Amino acid sequence: MAKGKDARVIVLLECTSCARNGLNKKSLGISRYITQKNRHNTPGRLELRKFCSYCHKHTIHGEIKK
Fold this sequence. Notes:
44% strand, 66 residues, mainly beta, Rubrerythrin, domain 2, 1 helix
């Protein structure tokens, strides 16, 4: 029988510097990545350092709700 909740969930990562700046005039949008995390190993919010194509540099991308 299948369990009710799966351990792996799909999460969205969003650039924190683009979101904080409120889409400044130079940037056209907010950088987002899709990834998976294990809910048992990482119960808190996931934060990874990824490349933002709008900021043109590596920034911290934090987990957001779908």
